[in-house]
Fold these 4 entries.
Entry 1:
Amino acid sequence: DFLRKPFCPEEFYCRITQNIENLSNIEQIQKAANTDYLTELPNRRAFFQNAELQIADYIKKQTPYCLAMLDIDFFKKVNDDFGHDAGDHVLKVLALYMRKHLGTGLLARLGGEEFAILISGIDDDQLYNKLDDFRRDIAVLQLNFEGKHITFTVSLGVNLSSKDSMAKQLNDADGALYIAKENGRNQVSIFGIEE
């Protein structure tokens, strides 16, 4: 934007206000494009953009990390038994607990009841324990939604520090998640370690 001299002070201040509003609108649009509206976690697009960069940094600095896929066990049953508003409430509470336990990591809702987690730590045991503590905390959680008591569990598939492509790491974590579900759900399964 520009003004020709001589200019009127009112027009100058009007243009400044308009530009500030435009910048604010652009920021809101970017946030909406990269944030899941329900959980306010990053969405799939934001996760893939940021995870690639973080993984490259972890590999460069030789920082242990893990990429995990999380799924709410029997989420359809929650929706069927208590309604979709209750299901939405479960997703929001899960996002709060993810921030509480894994807040320094990159957390995202990929869609439906599926989430992705990228966290770093001191070693593989610490990473596993952090995820398992989170899982155990969710398993004992009792939600009260409109007078209804709701409990739920989560299963996680984990790929520990790998130099494979992010797509391969996610695929391996998804494979581990499948094993966690096959073995009874409500557990953390690590890729490459059969239970």
Entry 2:
Amino acid sequence: MKKLLLFLLFICQCSFAQDAFHIKSFQFERTKESVIPIFRLGESIEFSFDDLLGTEIDYSYRLTHYSHDWKPSNLKRTEYIQGNEWVRLRNLKNSFNTLQMYTHYSERLPNSYQRILISGNYMLEIVNADEEVILKRKLIVYEELVSVGLEAKRMRNLEQATQKQNLYITIDLGSSLLQNPNQYMHMVLMQNGQFFNVINDVKPQFNLGNQIKYQYDNETSFYAGNEFLFFDNSDIRFTSNTVAKVEANELYQSFLFPDQPRAKLGYTFFQDLNGAFYPSIRYRSDEVKSTEADYAWVYFSLDTPPQKDPIYVGGMFNNYHFTDEFKMEFNKETNRYELATLIKQGFTNYNYYVKKEGEISFADSLDGNFVETENIYHALVYYRAPIDRYDRIIGMGSVQAINVTN
């Protein structure tokens, strides 16, 4: 109880994120690994999270259908969901042999209570017994009516050729009979599964037979960023090449080696997970990580002088929530930006982000933008004819930007 009270006291000093403060480690999963929430219609969808209160609270979830620009659709729930509106989460287990107690919840769709009927954007909401929303997550369900080809290219604009990656898209309609697809299609482009920097509503550039082509330069380009940083505390009691010091008090404390801005250091390749995180315990099977992996206070530090714009730590581990909970503070004694936050042990990707005028500024990235950076991109094709009542996703394409060509 003492460690829980200490945790609550610390959180009360922060602004609440979108998730309730005691909810951690949400992830969509496939074969026990964290994935970007893009699923084919009919495919199994798994999700899980931890409740640090550890008291086996009753939670329920529901799914709501949205338009391509994330506005609630006009459909009745029975038109896109077969089964119950609210489904109680029945798969829960308490943590075992951990300093931080928690209850682990998990669910898989379709299940005996609910099945998704149509493609599109969905919002997953989880509520408690008082119908308070404790967590929201976006997910995407697509069909394969058209083929979507995606290529990662260099910019033709020489001023940004070393900083950005551009996408060429080809939609092959095949035998699909779509009414005026050039007018009624909406293209959405995503980088590393991030929802905060998507490119929306790029218009087709030209047609070639049964193919629709997008071969723009600026309109379909992303700042390339840099490879994600990472730390590995899957063996939570010991140091590593990323964890400089470990202390065990009420909870474990993992002090990471200080990072430096990489913008002026040039590009260096190392394998990352494009922002993902994998809770794990070294030398133990994946079957036990959900309840036997412990939590640690992870101490980030960035060795840079004071900046005029705020700096945040982000990744899939916190759903890229750029809120006060993940905002770094400058420590005059160490001359560094610092942040302590609670993260489940394992392998975690993260990056530092600068927020300028309320928006994340990729042009001002502290770690620079390098065309050599390995990113994963998705192209989602939404279609809504005049007689349709919702935006369906008729195709999805993806590409890993490796050895980007001209």
Entry 3:
Amino acid sequence: DVNLTRLSARVAQACEGLTLPEGERIGEFEFTTALAFLYFAEQRCDIVVLETGLGGRCDATNVILAPEVCVITPISRDHMAVLGDTVAEIAAEKAAIIKPACAVVCADGQPDEALPVIRRACDAAGAVWYDGMQDMQLLRCDITGSAFVRGGQGYTIPMPGRHQLQNAQTALRTLAALRERGWNIPQEAEVRGLARARMPGSGWERMMDQPLVLLDGAHNEAGIEALCRTVDELLKMRRLHVVMGMVRDKEYEVCVRRMARRADVFYACAPDTEDRSLNEQTVAALAEQGCAEVYDCHTVERALAAALGMPRRRTAFWCAARCFWLERPKKILRTRQKTARINS
């Protein structure tokens, strides 16, 4: 892309002219954040949605001095090595994005330890807490997504799971806060936006229908709870084949154990993340505590090939690996014992 090349050169030139404190450097995230800001400025964007990369207080995106609305989604334990060991500590880091006079939208479902911290940060900054509560009438929630009525208006979202309804409610509340601050956002635009919303690779992305293949990136306790609730509600009559790999710096024990308890067949693998990857033997050992049929497949490709080679009648398949390809295996895996290795 011509713009990407041109703007990258400008940011690189600016980086060369900086004098940084000892031990500090411009990392990939800081570089791409600066590049994005430059592009947004050139395009004269009316509204930019910025998601913090890690936490909030020290995040590169937090240089914005006067945001219109600050949105705090449900807080859970993640990135503890950087953000703190408790939900309250993590909430304080995230609430540091709140600036004077901005509107603050806090998603429903916040842990009890988080909400007082966010409230105090809002009061200290002189920001405006926006409730904007409206009842939601659920019409449908299935594998294809959900439909609901809110404030007399009907909405659909293509991503399944009740947690996506909570996300939709947060988005609609944010748009209402923007309207109160003078932004003209037609209701038909929010209806159309939710109907087109996607989270590739993160929120139950449907990769195939025959057999049904779903991709999800849950990697902490809150994420796996949402995933398991959705599995229990929407896939309870299906035979579930799970392909799962984890990285070592996430809450892998709780994630693997909870998913394994719901699996009819479990395929352990190691995602291609080099130094962060959790070895597949550890994943398989944890899965054995909850699933009677576990395979140690080493790579994502082998795990997928094995899962797709199994009998396909009423089979659902879930994968928590970041990168993959689909491959029809030439041979069906034979079960020699509870855990077997798939050889090349």
Entry 4:
Amino acid sequence: MIRPETEMKDAGIDWIGIIPNNWNIKPLYACLDEINQKNSPVVTTNILSLTNTDGVIPYSERGNQGNKSKENFEEYKVVYPNTIVANSMNILIGSVGLSQYEGCVSPVYYVYAAKPQVDIRYMNYLFQMEPFQKRLRQFANGILEIRLRVSSHDILHQKVAVPDYDEQQAIADYLDETCSKIDEIIAEAKASIDEYKELKQSVIDKAVLHGLCNGMMKDSGNDLIGKIPLSWEMRKLKYVADFNPGITTAYDAQKEVGYVPMNCVKNGYMNPLSARLSDMSTGLTGFQDGDIVIAKVTPCFENGNIAVAENLEQGVAFGSSELFVIRTHSINRRFMLYYLQNSVFKNQCISTMTGTGGLKRVSGYFVNNAYITYPPENEQQVIVNYLDEAVKNMDFLIAEKESLINDLEAYKKSLIYEVVTGKRRVV
């Protein structure tokens, strides 16, 4: 229930707005105590981690990746059940959670316990509010955008709206139940998306590797592909397409051309921008209308960043240096686009990756020399027509589920803000 304006007053804090007349404004240090208990001598070896989606979880559930000093237990902070854990850097994007575990966390985390007559769950929901996170951003220090840090002192000196203890509990109970239901629907939608993506992958694999009909088959010569239709051939990619050919289309360098950073290349689709060459960085990859571009670096390759370039300004574009360009000449372009998305080819490419961490790249030599299935020309078009329709339908279903998730997540954020600031009464 939305509270009538007659029951409200100005909180005197821009990001909070109006609050119920009987609520108080308090600094967080009046509600929370910081726990700075070092894990020395070692109290626990149960390392905990913090994620934006799952909250506080055992580090083992993340595969123990990314922790460079996980054996230095003495340097860690002790966490107890029903304490809030906040990442001093990622708190700005909601990396805060309520722990249900006893364990220890990295020294860069803050740990807070509730004072008497304070519901720790209510405080945890307060940390989830985007307006509060934006407020904290004003106190962030650091050089790089992704390494901004907020001090615990600045966090605890923020003023917040606080109802009495009974109403804190009622709000926390309501949000626990309601957010749990929302999260269940979101989880079901995400599971459906995964199923659609698996189905889409299997449909592409079947069509480009084994054809649409159950006719006579023969050995492809590739153990991973297995049998192919009798009329098909196996050809190297370099014999049916040019690899990283460069731009051959004439264009005016003084006018705007296409500009395609990696985030403009999605799973089968491209959303090109435009810019002047003089405003772009050097070392970009050039391509033109009709070219297939595919990411060569992890995780973009695994995420399916591949598309046919279309509707480019002046018919040409410059994009990320982490793109391969494939220009077909003796094979249906869209058949090639779908072939490059089959799971056998992708797994083979992944096995060729070299480099470290997030900079691993697919071997260009492998891609150029990879054997691909080659149906007769008319059959290539039949397969393309079939996949265009099937993929469009599955992409539509995926987009519907993604839209539902976005709407639910936005509603959840709005609901938390309205309830935790008292604009909506829990009844």
